[in-house]
Structures are given as structure tokens and as C-alpha cells.
Design a protein that fits this description.
The chain has three helices and 25 strands. With about 425 residues, it is mainly beta. The chain has two domains: about 350 residues, Porin (Beta Barrel), CATH 2.40.160; about 70 residues, no CATH class. The longest helix is centred in the first third of the chain and has 9 residues.
């Protein structure tokens, strides 16, 4: 009742309808400390500090439902992410776009199932109201500051899409069926909505629950905008000598070029979990082909931040050097990668809390060597974490993880290692 009254007070603009419906203000604040040690081919660095959303992203939102008639309910959910350490919004930009970047959906519930419209996570994303793979295939989900994260092993994780339509069936015999379509994954990018030049997303999935056993299966298609795109890599080499007003001397070897590709990405993921009482064991696996990775992958020395295209195509971005060489792999604008990932994890109740353990492995290569060249990538991951409840709404957490990735392009082999330790507190409201 207090939550409902608070929501009505905060959302004065909705006051007229809120009194006739069930409206709730909710959220969580996650704040803690983080220590990270990285080593890229013998060049190491350490950093530590305060960090938000390590266990689960800090957020606030409003949601509500109204029963129109028997068998017909209309509802909404608006959810915003933020960094608790500095108060900034996430999933938006300096212009304030995507205030509700975590989720913005209107849904209709009937006896025949539920239809959702708006911005929401994909079935394999590990995010949002309709995720059935990413949050279940690995016991750490997509949180924990990346420790044990699904997104380090599986592709397509943590993805939220604009212009989404989702159908969720009623549950029959423990089975629930899902279908999704995004007419344009990101409204801020080029390409008219629902056209072949826009990046789109389609998925079918199902979950099953029978006593202690739960399972899930998702098949996804990433329909990338067809036409001219960017592919290749760029190597930035810099020499930096500390001193007043010193700046690195930078040389850019730009192999990024426009190409024409009609390649799309596909992924099939499945999981099975069984609760033995003393522990719950989860096994997840995924096969992917042509799924694109994030632009700006670090394949060399240094600590980097880089977003747009570089060189003659479009200069921009920010680069900071701890080492001497950084290579950017434009996987986000390429034919993507193909391969598989597998994760095994367990959640064990211990001393009023829960112990999390996980191990993961991924093996992949470029899906089209004519576009991106040859590159074999393998990744290993181990993680352990613990949560301890202080109350029904507040808990402590700590975790440690190790992640290693090797990239072999036939000429050079780069090995990066990351060790991370986190601790913090989460309060739900």
C-alpha cells in the first residue's frame, strides 16, 4: 500500500488513472567496491574503486495494471537504469534519450496469452520480463560485474531492443511458449523501421517446469541491415613518455573498409536445471553463427574506450594507453563469429545465504574470413560468489572470478587475462 501511494504521489501526471489502477514504484540500489587486475601479453594493470550494479543493475521503475473486464487486463512497465555511485542514467545519452532504457512496455493479458509492445530484452538476453535463456543458462546471469557472466560465454546476451512485439502463451502441462520480433533493434541507428536496411531481431522459445526440473530452449535470428557496412580492424600504436603536457604519438593502421554483406546471425541456446535440495545445478549451451560481437574489442596492450568508426571513414572516440598497442576488431560491423559456448554452475544454500559456483568455455572463429580475416578465439571462465540476506529486501554479496581469452589470427596470438573481486550491498524497494 505504501508503494502504491508513493508511486501516485511521485507520478502526479498519472494521478487520474493511477487511482483506478494498481500502480507500483519499485527498484533496487546496488553499490560496492571492485578490484580488477588485467594482463594482456605480459602488460598488466590494476584498478579499484566504487562501482554500481555489480550484482544486479541499479534501477527504478513504475508498473501497473488495470482489469478492463473478466479475462482482459492491460498493464505497463517503465524501468530506468542508473549508476548509484554518481547518479547518472544508463542506457541513454547526454541528450536524455531512453530515460526508461531498461524496459518500456505496454502489455495486454487475455485467456489466450500475453502480448507486449515497446522496448524490452530479447528471449536470450538475460534482461527484462521475457528473458528465458540468459538469466537461466548461467547461475550468475548477466550481473556480478561480469564475474561468471553469461555474456562472456554466450552471444546476444544483455541485449534490449526497441520496437519489440512479444507473445507469451498460457502455461500448459508446465510448458510456456514465446515469440518475439523487433522491427528495428535500435531506433537511433540508420534504416527505416521494418525495412531491410534496419537491424531486426526474431526469436522463438519455450520453457518447461516439472517439479525440481526446469528447462528452456531459444532460437534467435539477428537480421542485420543489408547493404554497405564496415568491416576489418584497426591497430593503434602509441608511444607515451610521462611529463608535463605530454601526449602520446599515435600511428593508426586502418584496415576498416566498407563492404556489402547480406549475412545474418543465428543462435540456438538451451539449458536444464535441477534442484536436488542441497544444491541446484544448471547446464547451459549455445551454438551461434554470424552473431556480431561488440565493436572495439581490445586485442592488444592498454586500457581503451572506443565507439565510432575510425580513420578515413570517421575519426572519433577516446583512447587511453597503459601499454603501447591496441587493436580494434570491428566485429559489430562484420559478418560476425561462429562457434559454441557451454556453462556449468551450481547454487548451494550455506549458512542462511547462497554459494554460487560456475565454469564456462567458449570457442569461436570469424564467420566469414573474406570479410574479417581469420581469427580463432577461445575463452575460459571460473567464478565463485556468495550472497547473505540481512532482511527480506537487503543482502550482502561478494564474488571473485577469472576470465581468459586467446585470439589467434594466424600471424599473432594475443592472450588477455582478467581477475576480478567484488563486494557490496543491494537494497530492494
Amino acid at each position: 500500500m505504501k508503494k502504491t501511494l508513493a508511486a501516485v504521489a511521485v507520478l502526479g501526471a498519472f494521478a487520474g488513472s493511477a487511482l483506478a489502477a494498481d500502480v507500483t514504484l519499485y527498484g533496487k540500489v546496488d553499490l560496492g567496491l571492485n578490484y580488477t587486475h588485467t594482463d594482456v601479453d605480459g602488460v598488466s594493470s590494476d584498478k579499484w574503486g566504487m562501482q554500481s550494479g555489480q550484482n544486479s543493475g541499479s534501477r527504478f521503475g513504475i508498473k501497473g495494471t488495470e482489469q478492463i473486464s473478466e479475462g482482459l487486463t492491460v498493464g505497463f512497465q517503465l524501468e530506468s537504469g542508473f549508476d548509484a555511485d554518481d547518479g547518472r542514467f544508463k542506457y541513454g545519452n547526454d541528450d536524455g534519450e531512453r530515460i526508461f532504457g531498461r524496459e518500456a512496455r505496454l502489455f495486454v493479458q487475455t485467456d489466450f496469452g500475453e502480448l507486449g509492445f515497446g522496448r524490452m530484452g530479447g528471449l536470450d538476453s538475460g534482461s527484462g520480463s521475457y528473458d528465458i535463456f540468459g538469466g537461466n543458462a548461467g547461475v550468475f546471469g548477466t550481473g556480478w560485474s561480469g564475474i561468471g557472466s553469461d555474456s562472456d560465454i554466450f552471444l546476444g546476451m544483455s541485449s534490449r531492443y526497441d520496437n519489440m512485439i512479444t507473445y507469451k502463451s498460457p502455461t500448459f502441462g508446465g510448458v510456456t511458449v514465446y515469440a518475439q520480433a523487433s522491427l528495428k533493434q535500435d531506433s537511433s541507428k540508420d534504416g527505416e523501421e521494418a525495412s531491410s536496411k534496419a537491424d531486426r531481431y526474431y526469436a522463438l522459445g519455450a520453457t518447461g517446469k516439472w517439479g525440481a526440473l526446469s528447462t528452456g530452449l531459444v532460437a534467435s535470428m539477428f537480421d542485420y541491415g543489408h547493404g554497405e557496412r564496415l568491416a576489418g580492424d584497426a591497430t593503434i600504436t602509441g608511444v607515451y613518455e610521462p611529463g608535463p603536457g605530454a601526449k602520446p604519438e599515435v600511428d593508426i593502421d586502418d584496415n576498416v573498409k566498407p563492404v556489402t554483406t547480406d549475412d545474418d546471425g543465428y543462435a540456438v541456446g538451451a539449458f536444464a536445471a535441477y534442484d536436488f535440495g542441497v544444491t541446484k545445478v544448471t547446464l547451459g549451451a549455445q551454438y551461434f553463427d554470424g552473431v556480431k560481437q561488440s565493436r572495439g574489442t581490445a586485442l592488444g596492450d592498454g586500457e581503451i574506450s572506443f565507439t565510432p568508426e575510425i580513420g578515413a571513414i570517421n575519426d572519433g572516440g577516446a583512447i587511453s594507453f597503459n601499454g603501447s598497442k591496441v587493436t580494434f576488431d570491428y566485429g559489430d560491423e562484420s559478418a560476425g563469429v561462429k562457434g559454441y559456448g557451454v556453462m556449468l554452475g551450481a547454487v548451494t544454500p550455506i549458512a542462511s545465504g547462497a554459494l554460487y559456483t560456475s565454469i564456462g568455455y567458449r570457442d569461436s572463429e570469424n564467420a566469414d574470413e573474406d570479410i574479417n580475416g581469420q581469427a580463432d578465439k577461445t575463452a575460459y571462465q571460473v567464478a565463485i560468489g556468495y550472497t547473505y540476506p540481512l532482511s527480506k529486501r537487503t543482502y550482502l554479496y561478494t564474488a571473485a572470478g577469472y576470465y581468459q581469452e586467446e585470439v589467434d589470427d594466424g600471424a599473432d596470438e594475443v592472450k588477455s587475462k582478467t581477475t576480478e573481486v567484488v563486494a557490496g550491498i543491494v537494497h530492494n524497494f
